[in-house]
Target: Cyclase family protein
Amino acid sequence: MPLPREFHEIAERVNNWGRWGDDDEIGTLNLVTDAVVRAAAGTVRSGRRVALALPLHQDGLQTGLVPGRLNPFHTMVQINYEMFGPGTVATSDDTVTMALQAATHWDALTHVSHSGTLYNGRPADTITPHGRSRFSGIDKIPHIVSRGVLLDVARAKGVERLASGHAVTPEDLDEAAEFGGVTVGAGDIVLVRTGQSRLLLAGDKHAYGFPSPGLSVRTPEWFHARDVAAVATDTLPFEIIPPEIDGLWLPVHALHLVEMGMLQGQNWNLENLSTACGEESRYAFLLSAMPEPFVGATGTPVAPVAVL
Amino acid sequence: MPLPREFHEIAERVNNWGRWGDDDEIGTLNLVTDAVVRAAAGTVRSGRRVALALPLHQDGLQTGLVPGRLNPFHTMVQINYEMFGPGTVATSDDTVTMALQAATHWDALTHVSHSGTLYNGRPADTITPHGRSRFSGIDKIPHIVSRGVLLDVARAKGVERLASGHAVTPEDLDEAAEFGGVTVGAGDIVLVRTGQSRLLLAGDKHAYGFPSPGLSVRTPEWFHARDVAAVATDTLPFEIIPPEIDGLWLPVHALHLVEMGMLQGQNWNLENLSTACGEESRYAFLLSAMPEPFVGATGTPVAPVAVL
Amino acid sequence: MPLPREFHEIAERVNNWGRWGDDDEIGTLNLVTDAVVRAAAGTVRSGRRVALALPLHQDGLQTGLVPGRLNPFHTMVQINYEMFGPGTVATSDDTVTMALQAATHWDALTHVSHSGTLYNGRPADTITPHGRSRFSGIDKIPHIVSRGVLLDVARAKGVERLASGHAVTPEDLDEAAEFGGVTVGAGDIVLVRTGQSRLLLAGDKHAYGFPSPGLSVRTPEWFHARDVAAVATDTLPFEIIPPEIDGLWLPVHALHLVEMGMLQGQNWNLENLSTACGEESRYAFLLSAMPEPFVGATGTPVAPVAVL
Amino acid sequence: MPLPREFHEIAERVNNWGRWGDDDEIGTLNLVTDAVVRAAAGTVRSGRRVALALPLHQDGLQTGLVPGRLNPFHTMVQINYEMFGPGTVATSDDTVTMALQAATHWDALTHVSHSGTLYNGRPADTITPHGRSRFSGIDKIPHIVSRGVLLDVARAKGVERLASGHAVTPEDLDEAAEFGGVTVGAGDIVLVRTGQSRLLLAGDKHAYGFPSPGLSVRTPEWFHARDVAAVATDTLPFEIIPPEIDGLWLPVHALHLVEMGMLQGQNWNLENLSTACGEESRYAFLLSAMPEPFVGATGTPVAPVAVL
Model:
């Protein structure tokens, strides 16, 4: 069963295949030029830093709904181990087992395929169990540093958090940009705040996960028109679920990752950033959100930081 | 068997316990003020970014020498999985098991104890298998962004890499600072390049690991005198091994982590940064090296980025 | 706070320390002699085999109540991988991460300590994170094959399963032995059926886990008097919880593992065995329940089989 | 490139597809009837038990040659944890991450496919990353208990171990059967000893793994003619590598697992069994080698035991 015509029409309008060459593996991150980063550094005023990652622990946000989404399972392998004999300096070491998409993360471009195809027209079956993502694995992304822009949709609407069925529209994004006094431009990393993670931070991981507000299928064109480099939200599913077009699940994922070649961030904690931006009346900042270079991975935990 | 008097004499001179209060859990990172970060952002000239993490994969740098240091073991749990039915948008997910100290990482302050004691005088036995690091776990570090300074000791000496038995001394650091035209100051994160990781990048992980050049037991006083916030190197052991004082293993670890409360970074890839700094004739830059917030962990993988 | 006098009185009566030498690490499994095994093989009549392990999968019986009890997390690392070239024979491989006590398992003698002491008077602190169980780890048990006896307490009482607060008493064991026409003797492995796992098999893992019927603090003396080699049940906590003596948690664990040196089995599926024994009117059989030899481990998954 | 004609000719002669019905998922284990097990129990004379599993630990036999073959990585998650308060009974728990094929194991029937096909003609693509082995996963095998027969090829030839390039032929098996005074029959589990694991037990894991003696491509017909239920060896590759027919890698795997539907065991420790059988002059015994029921897995660790 092919995807509906409506999807393909949008896809055609936002498609970036070949835009940065047939060999390109990083998509819209090509838009983050040295000049963009220079300008981003220039936005720093106060030097205030806001971390955007959720804590990583076994009682994390995954509820078991998605079987492979294992919360971080952390164990000690050494505790005050005097490896050089009694009374010597002692060391403690640890390990973790976790889903790369368990908590605050980036989807790599290969996290999603449709119609047997990945970003830049590569065949989906180039992902294999033993080889993982041969192309566009998260390790192919050298760095993610750019101007970050917070589009605080919830705050712009004067609510603590959007209703769970709220599809964030292009109009909502315009409204939030206006509220923040920012113009989204080429190479920007846009953080869309719904306030949904307040549920998680209040301890209700089930309510946080589903149902959730999320991006409308109409937003990829908005991002595309502005040459946005990446988008992240404070929700688990990123986009509105159930979907707006009957039977078309995960269209925003497919448009961003496959058609545009644009990374998505999920489960970002934007609460402190909302407070900071509000206090400083500035919604643009330097953002560093480096991927851990897992070779061939379709995602990565990330510990983003905004520098205001 | 207590540690030798020589250690305690240095310890007394660099000790920071109580300096930021009895409840402090982050040590010298207190020195990274908003003003320091503002100034760090001001160092950005070209916008060039250099990533400093080694790739994460099963054929990583760990050789089995340290049993708990498991290289990242990455598996796919979904590949192009059409969870909403045939022909729908498909997803790929993955997981990893790894030692937090396996590759490019920060040691948390709790990575080392001596004489039964952790940073700020806390008892070492507050680390437990089930609770992990109750105090000063890596999750207690909110953010690591500051001015980075590359002390390119190898390049300053005109060699590709230091000899394996070379203990990097305060004089070496002075020489490299002069070579780079930088003055190390309060809140700086100092990256000490030995060139040792060239062996690793050339494929010889055994030669890379041991023997290795490393920091001399005399350097903690140098860092302390300048109120450095953190130090990282391009070696596995960080400090010179075997040690300079007979029978005193890991003294630099103990001085930095326990006495000073200063984070250490290991296995950082400083090769591209050396090239970039050389090309731009600037050895100071904005550095973001955010820890992944593993709750109670004694270390964390990190994907640092220098912005020049 | 020391354990209550009542505990120590029982402990004194069942203590086996030194009984098999000061160096002994396997406790009551010493009672399984060649002669016992010969006789056990002689109990085989029909050749019918009944497996007693629960399936191992991510949706296992652990509910997250005990943080370290990770359900088996199983991933494929190769799928039909043609490692010798296209069209060659292809292989599929997999890995697992799991708590050794997650499902059907044996507790090793070191799973429990009390008053700082393990079985045979060894100090509890001989268990370390890096070295694990130096003494009495599960790998020290060479084999577990003996006569198995099903004490079908639920069936003897004519109920599907015991009430959740039911403490299984020595009288209950006598009743079940009489019902089954068996005399428990030296070297036997006793399987105590409560019927509790019916809840799990019906899909209610929460009801299965707690509250649960379990062995009374009075039963260790019953097992001791008969020189039983090991005991297993079809419950998660093994013994009755909350405990019968106020404030004395896990007394049966402490008496069996520490005082007697007797292995315990938990989460065994005894439903099919109950049916088989009922049909064949025989409650004694050959039992093989080999531990996986994890070096230094305090437990092991086990796939027991009864041969009738 | 299709497999050579020679392979297909043998395959035709040993094929068991449909023999136990189109729905069958366990293959030659159907040959282990109650009568076979009764007879197997009747072989027990001395009651002597011999365990056949190698120890499970991080310094296991895998050398990194096969990337996914992770040695067991075992960590403690609780150590003497007084969960009910100071002075109460304390517990220790642990976890493991390991390849299911890392040490002593059974290959499930799905471990190998050829020409896109699994045992009983099922499509190889029924194995998926999220669903694993839908058919013939190791959990479909209810139990493995039968008569075991040791064919001590090395001892029959009067050598400590076979030369590394030695392909074990049908004639070798006949010779070993005659040496042991046994006739291999329907439902038997045959253990073929080469002595290769002496290298491993002496500490040389590299020499153990490759090159190695192993079963000839001519042996599947020998096992088929006798209706053997399963075969295990004391080697890593099981069959002779490099292969006897140019370019035909893993033919024995494909014949056993795909064509015959017969489980294979690898890395079994047959040294003590060789000694015991020699001492008792009996090479047939009761064998229990229960799979751990990992749902959908293509293999399982196993702790086999022979009862003489």
Notes: The radius of gyration of chain A is 20 Å.
